[in-house]
Every structure is written in structure tokens, then in C-alpha cells.
């Protein structure tokens, strides 16, 4: 089904403040519409990072780590099975070793065996490692039972997380999470890898102040910080843009760790012009695929490798797993679209959708929920059996602006106590477990809650544009400045333009992609454009209103550019 969208333009903001002469007016205008009043705000440097000691729990956390280093305790960094969790684990292991820890290991739950986070089952399996201090990354704030099980064995636990806490906190020795109530840290948008990086910054400062060894250049970890931050789709506020921008610069300079270099090669990206989009669509899916279909330990091993040949081998395996993931995702998405068609035929589509298929894979439901959310512009929760034939379901939710999906799950949990064994997440994404028998009751309760809190006007899908480009701006210089002007991402969106064009030619590329030749008044030469998955089975109309991105066309080289069509409507 095709969702009709309305193209709306962002209000025009006249740039002010101080700008270097080399920053073109096009970029200044785009930065200004995103709230950046000057160049320092638009392209923040590391010197503008918020201070680590302003984050709550940091004294207790660094004391634990300092003592563990001095006393040569065995530290086990416990990761998570997504890209943020994997990069956070790699940053934790590498950073602690750089700061003097001699016994640092890592572990990660297996999605199929342990479920999410620091579970009691994972604690049982970790006992063989004989840890003395566990450091969770990108999880732990909701892992009460797992933390309690670790403490019962006499282990210390440091929770580093960025997810929203529940009503109570786990009984850890220390907790660092900028979203804990009352924490005064100015940026709540850090990814899990960003929180771990901040813990390392604070630990280094403590070791320096106490005259202990461990002075290290932690900026060498920013390649991993950038990848995890961009992959987790957290808002790119000024603090996150400083982290991600610095990491991208390292990667473009060829200074990334061996694992990331190998993943860049495997994805076919050009390291010299690497962008946030390349990370989001090229690197992150390869890392995530291990946690979705196999074991994220493989992804973490790749990120920790210092041997480029070994890293290339692991990146190749991750690429093969990702190809399998694409096939599974496409099949599940096709099935979900068929289910959506049945919903639409039965009447008005509800404001939130719950989808389930007993044959779906639990590691891919988040991707299906995201794809369907984009397709119908309403919150979607996709469920799959936790394991084949199981009555236990694993669900993944994706939301739209205007509905905080984690709070929605909390409201359902309050209305129907005990029905949701576990849940957690963010405003835009969340996960939960559920029994199959409770699915209908959950779907009804969620629908009732959403109907009560979500403004129906927010269900009208919109494409937000930066307006029209001038005829002279369709050139290589403009495309390059847009590519290099990021990092673009959540809350600092990649530039998108709109305009009316005459279609002078078209052809189908592959099975679903539409290649266009366009004419724009005031520009004598035609423009090349491609609309991925844009072929509807019918020729495009002679005149179209497009929302598009201006991109460098590296395939043709030289001064070639092309438009990447995001949305098309009759003019």
C-alpha cells in the first residue's frame, strides 16, 4: 500500500553570527533552520563537550574502576546485541586497558539463549569467568534480577546505560545513566557508547588527579563512539555532533580501528568521504546482523581486533549474515504488508498496529516494525515467538513524533499489572516480552491508550523539506558541501529539498528502482534522479513534485550529480 504524504517546508531562518568565508550560504541557511546560530554551534568541537563530572554517579563509578585497576581485579564488560551495545563494549574494553586495567574480559548475552540484558541466566554463565566487577554497557538500568544475582555472588556491578529507568533502580554498586531522575547532565541524548566514553574520561581525570598511571589518548576511541552514536539513532544534539563529527574525521583520515576499516571495505564505501548515512546503512546493519541472527560476540570480536587480515575475515562473515538478514527481513516485510492490506480493507486503520506471525524471527521484528511505521505513519509493534513454537513472544515497537512509546508501554503495564513481564526503551523505540495468550488484550489496551493521548492530526504523514534549490545550486560543489556538512541525523536531519520537474525519460533498474531524467526551468541540462523502490508498475506522470536529496554521482564521476528521490507525487 502507498501512503499519501504532504510536503511541508521548514520555516526560513536567516543565518546570523560568525561564519568562515568557506562555508557556503546554502549550508548556513540549512544550519540556521536546525537551530545552529553560528558555525561553532553547527560544527561543534570536542572542546565544547559537557564536562564528565556533571553526570550523576560518576564519583562512585570511577572509584569502583580505580580500585579495580589498582587491585588488579578481573573486570568483565557486558555488552548488548545491537550496534550501540557492541561499540560500547569495544570502547569499554579498549579504554580500560588503555587506562591500566590488566585483566579485562567481555561478554554479551545471546538473544536466543539469555534474552535481553543482564539476566540471571547470563550471570550463571558468567560465573566460569570468575569476574570481580561487572560493567554493563547500553543496558542494566532495568536489569534488577540480573544485578541482584551478580551481587549475591559477591561481584561488584557498575551499570552504564542511557535508557529510561523504571520506578526503581537496580541495586548496583554504581549507576551512570544521564536519564536517571535528578541527573543534572545537560544532554540526555547520549547513546550507550557515549555514556561509556564519558565514564572513561572521568576515570582518566581521577587517575591524573591522584597521580596514578593511566594517562592515555582516549580520542582514539572516537571512531567507535561515532559509529555507535549514529547507529542508535539518538538525537544529534551539539554534544553528540561533537562526538560523531570527531569520530567521522578519524575514520575519513584512515585512523579507524581494524574492525571498522574492514567493515567499511566490505560495505563498498569510500573511507575518504564516509558519512553518517554510510554508517547507518552500510556499517551498522553488518554489526547488528550478528546480534539479530547469530551471536553479537562475533561483531564485538571484529571491533576489538587489531589484525586487519583477521578483521577482514570477520567482516566478511558479518556481511554474509547481513545478506541472510536482508532475505529474512524482506520476507517478513512482505507478510506484514499483506497483513496491513487486510487491516485497511476491514475499515479505518487504528492509530497503532500490533503485528504477529508465528514464523517471524525475533531478531528482525524491530526492522519490520520500523519499516511498517514508515509505511503507514503510525506506531507499530511487531511480535515473533521468542523461539520456535514458544508461547513467549518478543516484541519490538517503533513510534512517530508525538507518542512516547516507552511511556505507552508503561501505561499499559499500569492498567494491566503483570501482563508485560519486561519492557524498556526510548521515546521512539522500545522492546517488550509477552505471552501469546495476552496478545489480544495487550493490543486492545495499547490502542485505547494511544487513542486517548495521540493527536489524530499527527497521523497525517508529512515530508519535511528545506524548500527548493536554485537552478545554479544543482552542481557538484553544492552536493559535496551537503555531503561533508554533517554529521546529519536525528534532530539534525539530512537536507531534503522539493520542487516540480518535467519527466523527460524513465527506465526501471532492477525490479523496483526507477531511474529518471528530469528537466528544471532555468537549467538547460537534464538532471539524473533515482527513486529506490519507486517503480509502481506504471510510467510516471509527465510532471512530478519530488522531495529529494542532492548527491554526488560517484558512479559517473567528474562533475556528475544525481537526485535521490524520497517521495514523488503528481504535480
UniProtKB/TrEMBL annotation:
Record-annotated DHHA1 domain positions: 352-446
Signal peptide (UniProt feature, chain positions): none
Pfam families: DHH, DHHA1, RecJ_OB
TM region positions: none
Domain DDH: 74-229
The keyword Nuclease is assigned to this record: yes
Residue ranges of every copy of the RecJ OB domain listed in the record: 466-566
Keywords assigned by UniProt, alphabetized: Exonuclease, Hydrolase, Nuclease
One Gene Ontology MF term: 5'-3' exonuclease activity
A GO BP entry: DNA recombination
Alphabetized NCBIfam families for the sequence: recJ
Similarity annotation: Belongs to the RecJ family.
Name recorded for this polypeptide: Single-stranded-DNA-specific exonuclease RecJ
Amino acid at each position: 500500500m502507498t501512503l499519501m504524504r504532504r510536503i511541508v517546508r521548514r520555516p526560513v531562518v536567516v543565518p546570523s553570527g560568525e561564519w568562515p568565508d568557506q562555508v557556503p550560504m546554502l549550508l548556513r541557511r540549512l544550519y540556521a533552520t536546525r537551530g545552529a546560530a553560528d558555525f561553532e554551534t553547527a560544527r561543534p568541537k570536542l572542546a565544547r563537550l559537557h564536562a564528565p563530572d556533571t553526570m550523576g554517579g560518576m564519583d562512585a563509578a570511577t572509584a569502583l574502576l580505580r580500585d579495580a585497576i589498582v587491585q588488579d581485579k578481573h573486570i568483565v564488560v557486558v555488552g548488548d546485541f545491537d550496534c550501540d551495545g557492541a561499540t560500547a563494549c569495544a570502547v569499554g574494553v579498549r579504554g580500560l586497558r588503555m587506562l591500566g586495567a590488566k585483566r579485562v574480559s567481555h561478554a554479551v548475552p545471546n538473544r536466543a539463549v539469555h534474552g535481553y540484558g543482564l539476566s540471571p541466566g547470563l550471570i550463571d554463565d558468567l560465573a566460569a569467568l570468575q569476574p570481580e566487577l561487572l560493567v554493563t554497557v547500553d543496558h542494566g538500568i532495568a536489569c534488577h534480577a540480573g544485578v541482584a544475582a551478580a551481587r549475591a555472588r559477591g561481584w561488584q556491578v557498575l551499570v552504564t546505560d542511557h535508557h529510561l529507568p523504571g520506578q526503581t533502580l537496580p541495586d548496583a554498586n554504581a549507576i551512570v545513566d544521564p536519564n536517571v531522575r535528578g541527573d543534572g547532565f545537560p544532554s540526555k541524548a547520549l547513546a550507550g557508547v557515549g555514556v561509556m566514553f564519558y565514564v572513561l574520561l572521568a576515570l582518566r581525570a581521577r587517575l591524573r588527579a591522584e597521580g596514578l598511571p593511566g594517562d592515555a589518548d582516549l580520542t582514539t576511541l572516537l571512531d567507535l563512539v561515532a559509529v555507535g552514536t549514529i547507529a542508535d539513532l539518538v538525537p544529534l544534539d551539539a554534544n553528540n555532533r561533537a562526538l560523531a563529527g570527531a569520530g567521522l574525521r578519524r575514520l575519513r583520515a584512515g585512523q579507524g580501528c581494524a574492525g571498522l576499516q574492514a567493515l567499511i571495505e566490505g560495505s563498498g564505501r569510500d573511507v575518504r568521504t564516509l558519512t553518517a548515512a554510510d554508517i547507518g546503512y552500510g556499517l551498522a546493519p553488518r554489526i547488528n546482523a550478528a546480534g539479530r541472527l547469530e551471536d553479537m560476540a562475533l561483531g564485538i570480536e571484529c571491533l576489538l581486533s587489531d589484525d586487519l587480515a583477521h578483521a577482514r575475515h570477520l567482516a566478511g562473515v558479518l556481511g554474509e549474515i547481513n545478506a541472510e538478514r536482508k532475505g529474512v527481513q524482506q520476507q517478513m516485510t512482505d507478510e506484514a504488508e499483506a497483513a496491513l492490506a487486510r487491516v485497511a480493507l476491514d475499515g479505518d486503520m487504528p492509530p497503532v498496529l500490533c503485528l504477529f506471525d508465528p514464523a517471524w524471527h525475533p531478531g528482525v521484528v524491530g526492522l519490520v516494525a520500523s519499516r511498517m511505521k514508515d509505511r503507514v505513519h503510525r506506531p507499530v509493534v511487531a511480535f515473533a515467538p521468542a523461539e520456535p513454537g514458544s508461547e513467549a513472544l518478543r516484541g519490538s515497537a517503533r513510534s512517530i513524533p508525538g507518542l512516547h512509546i516507552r511511556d505507552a508501554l508503561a501505561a499499559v503495564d499500569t492498567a494491566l499489572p503483570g501482563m508485560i513481564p519486561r519492557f524498556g526503551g526510548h521515546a521512539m523505540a522500545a522492546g517488550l516480552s509477552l505471552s501469546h495468550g495476552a496478545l489480544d488484550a495487550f493490543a486492545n489496551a495499547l490502542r485505547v491508550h494511544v487513542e486517548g493521548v495521540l493527536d489524530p492530526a499527527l497521523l497525517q504523514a508529512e515530508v519535511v523539506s528545506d524548500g527548493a534549490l536554485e537552478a545554479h545550486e544543482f552542481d557538484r560543489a553544492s552536493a559535496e558541501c551537503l555531503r561533508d556538512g554533517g554529521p546529519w541525523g536525528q534532530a539534525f536531519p539530512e537536507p531534503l529539498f522539493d520542487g516540480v520537474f518535467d519527466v523527460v525519460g524513465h527506465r526501471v533498474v532492477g525490479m523496483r528502482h526507477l531511474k529518471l531524467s528530469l528537466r528544471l526551468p532555468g537549467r538547460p541540462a537534464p538532471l539524473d534522479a533515482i527513486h529506490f523502490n519507486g517503480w509502481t508498475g506504471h510510467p510516471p506522470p509527465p510532471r512530478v513534485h519530488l522531495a529529494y536529496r542532492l548527491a554526488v554521482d560517484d558512479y559517473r564521476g567528474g562533475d556528475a550529480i544525481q537526485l535521490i528521490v524520497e517521495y514523488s507525487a503528481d504535480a
